[in-house]
Amino acid sequence: MTDTAPRELPLQELDEVIIRFAGDSGDGMQLTGDQFTSISAALGNDLATLPEFPAEIRAPQGTLAGVSAFQVRISDFAITTPGDAPTVLVAMNPAALKAQLHNVVQGGAIIINTDAFNERNLEKAGYESNPLEDGSLEGYRTYPVPMSQITRDAVAEHGVKPRDAERSKNFFALGLISWMYTRPVEPTMEFINTKFSGKELVIKANEAAFHAGYNFGETAELFESHYEIKPAALPSGEYTNVNGNTALAWGCVAAGQLARLPVFLGSYPITPASDILHDLSALKNFGVRTFQAEDEIAAAASAVGAAFGGALSFTTTSGPGVALKGETLGLAVSLELPLIVIDIQRGGPSTGLPTKPEQADLMMAMYGRHSESPMPIVAPKSPADCFNAAIEACRIALRYRTPVMLLSDGYLATSSEPWLLPEIDSLPDIGVEFHTGFNGTNEDGEGIFLPYLRDPETLARPWAIPGTPDLMHRIGGIEKEDGSGNISYDPENHQKMVDLRAAKIAAIDVPDIEIAGDQDATFCMLGWGSTWGAIDAAVDRLQQAGKKVAHVHLTHLNPLPKNLGEVLATFDKVICPEMNDGQLVNLVRAKYLLDVKPVNKMNGVPFTTAEIESAALQAMDAS
Amino acid sequence: MTDTSPRTEPADWATDQEVRWCPGCGDYSILTAMRMLMPELDVDRENTVFISGIGCAARFPYYMNTYGMHGIHGRAPAIATGLAMARPDLDIWVIGGDGDMMSIGGNHLIHALRRNVNIKILLFNNMIYGLTKGQFSPTSEVGKVTKSSPMGSLDSPFNPISVALGAEASFVARTHDMDRQHMMDMFRRAHEHKGAAIVEVFQNCNVFNDGAWEGITKKQNRDANLITLEHGQPIRFGADGEFGVVVDGGAAKVVSVADVGVDALLVHDEHKPDPSTAFMLSRLARGPFEPTPIGVFRATERIEYASSSTSQLAMAHDNQGSGDLAALLRSRGTWQV
Fold this sequence. Notes:
The complex is a heterodimer.
Chain A: E1 11-14, E2 16-24, H1 29-42, E3 46-52, E4 67-75, E5 88-91, H2 94-100, E6 109-113, H3 119-124, E7 141-145, H4 147-156, H5 162-165, H6 169-180, H7 186-195, H8 200-219, E8 226-229, E9 238-243, H9 244-259, E10 263-267, H10 274-281, E11 289-292, H11 296-308, E12 312-317, H12 319-335, E13 339-345, H13 362-367, E14 377-378, H14 385-400, E15 403-409, H15 410-414, E16 416-420, E17 440-441, E18 447-448, E19 474-476, H16 491-506, E20 516-517, E21 523-528, H17 532-544, E22 550-554, E23 556-558, H18 564-569, E24 573-578, H19 583-592, E25 597-600, H20 609-622
Parallel strand pairs in A: 1-8, 2-5, 5-6, 6-7, 10-11, 10-12, 12-13, 13-15, 14-15, 21-22, 21-24, 24-25
Antiparallel strand pairs in A: 2-4, 3-4, 9-16, 14-23, 17-18, 20-22
Helix pairs in contact in A: 1-6, 4-8, 6-8, 9-10, 9-14, 11-12, 17-20
Chain B: H1 27-41, E1 48-52, E2 67-70, H2 76-86, E3 91-97, H3 98-104, H4 106-115, E4 120-125, H5 160-166, E5 171-176, H6 180-192, E6 197-202, H7 214-217, H8 219-225, E7 226-228, E8 236-237, E9 243-248, E10 251-256, H9 257-260, H10 276-282, E11 292-299, H11 305-320, H12 325-329, E12 335-336
Parallel strand pairs in B: 1-2, 1-3, 3-4, 4-6, 5-6, 7-11
Antiparallel strand pairs in B: 5-11, 8-9, 9-10
């Protein structure tokens, strides 16, 4: 570090940068990444984030297993993914460098906290020699920075103990990166003061560390330039930055208002779905009632009970929880009550990879209950789309009186993107009426209530809630007589009820599929859910390379859009990238007898654009 | 209750569905007691809900002309908890057997009790699996010979009253299917209680476990083996009240009143905050062949779950105002493009 006055460094304009902050899981990398994202959002960049953290709360310090990372891509053009490979890596310790280096593009910048590269940490990370000295970082632009030491020096004057001082080093890193990418200082000062309100010493330390980092960039003769990324040309309006789980929670609240029903959530904590429970638990002033149940089954069962009572009922979970809820969901199918099951898919089987995404619960959502128990399935395509998906799932559940499965995943759950806020008035009215009067007569001509007499248009049964005079009725899991709902073991009746339950779901009004990309292409990529961003970006790249390619993306998986078979049949070749071993492919092949080709990935990391681009090129060449 | 005639008759609470329990089943008398009690409670059919799981007892809702749900095995307390939270205005009864609620649904039962959700749980205990045709249940005695335990069951049984007390239940009572008036009294007391109430009903399965409770419930055995608990009264039984219960050496024990004197007898206190004495009473008999207490073991006041949940909603509303969706979507900061 020098004492010279700020140098006038050249300001270079970039169209995008992909930064990955990586450190120990206790180093505050998620916070650092989040804050950098917020500042960039406010500057008008388009952005997408990809947090990545270990399943353990505090994995052994300094080890590869304990590395926590946060990738953020900011750009001056519209983007749909957090980027394939970081162009900048901030490595807070040897483990972070070792775990993340392979991700970084050749020639990328690596900003290293050299203070952490002592013998002990190198050993813990499994380095036999110091990568800062042995030439293994050749081919990258490395910026060694003694972050811990400068942070300690900077905060010392505020009376912070050396041990505590180092906790502020993530703010040093944030300050440095904020300088590099010409981010304003003020928003982070405000953030620090709000976040650590009441802890004066922590506020002072973090502020000092941030400024030290910012000034270091300016004064240390280490960096050749700093950078500017202009705002992206996004549709005008008011934006917020939202991740998938928060968007889902907000969507649940919005759906309650749009349906004019109180919201009930029965849930049991499970990664990566718990944040929806947290978010909704904090929204009691919206009349949202949350119930942390004793187990996954009780969570679903309580939601069934609340739905019987007339609430807009949700249960949130991940794959293992859906497995446990299976029998209860079968009951909900039989009772024909509205219920929304939110599955934030994660790697499996069993505990699997709790913090990593997969799309491998599709078959369970379709068929994971005994006997014929059809359930509609909705899948959001991006973090912000989770808001729409929640409302759409509720619309279907209410209109057709059925449990609905919403399939998000660990990627959408924690990733964030700018969201052009909708006008509240533009959101759909999804309200339905409770049944309040007789709908039949007995042989004596007296009015009676038939709980399974269906609406001829939707095949939905009447929803009459306890407290409604004269409509007392009993429902249950035993097969019911069509119309009366009385217990019936009659063979013909059972056939009829199986057919009716299937017909009701099959006839749900799902919007027709639209082709994105080249309408006249002969090659198509079919996707569903969270792969949308990567496929969309791959389509862009292929088009730039002069290829014609179409993209068909499903957000409704049961029933499938009515025109899907017809649309897919117009292409010579269709590939289907999905984070499973070919589940949508199997559904589509079985239903339409079309030879859709699988492109599968099951390593806990979302598809990169390059992987999909390459799979597409291979498939095109093969023809 | 007012002194005008009840708004409903027992027959109003019956459905048109044929009752399909085996002839002679104890469930019939429980159903009759419930139908007879309802007019006395002066409640409305549309505001009453019966929720059940699976088993013979679980058919109960089909026979009550109220709202009802026949759920899945063991889950009735959980279903009822959701309903009670969403609709604190309703009277919710949960019906299940010993297999349903002590075995597959044991978890939901204990959690509903400790939360003190305002539901009234009737546990029909016949010490056998009836609907699956006669396997031993979690309340069957050790050595029970059944089709699934031809050499005798190895399982130590649960004592439902002990379990309920251990689960922090605020209201715990026991009755039996041979005494309609006592059943009605216990069900009424459960209904009056604010919070979770559990009533164990000794119920005879005349097909798979006939006479299991006879040692205490049969008319000629009642004097010797049935102890009726009454709040504020010394615990006494026998044809002439010649036996009593004392606490001795950390346990409840049967004594001859002549030996110890009336003043030495345990005076029953349903409202005792500490459940230890009630627990001792629940352990008095080792099985239905020794003097066994019936009545209210415990009736204490504790905050009810759904009303606490409602209070939190009201508090949040008072502190933060009515939820504004547009503001919520802007709560994490916004920017203009």
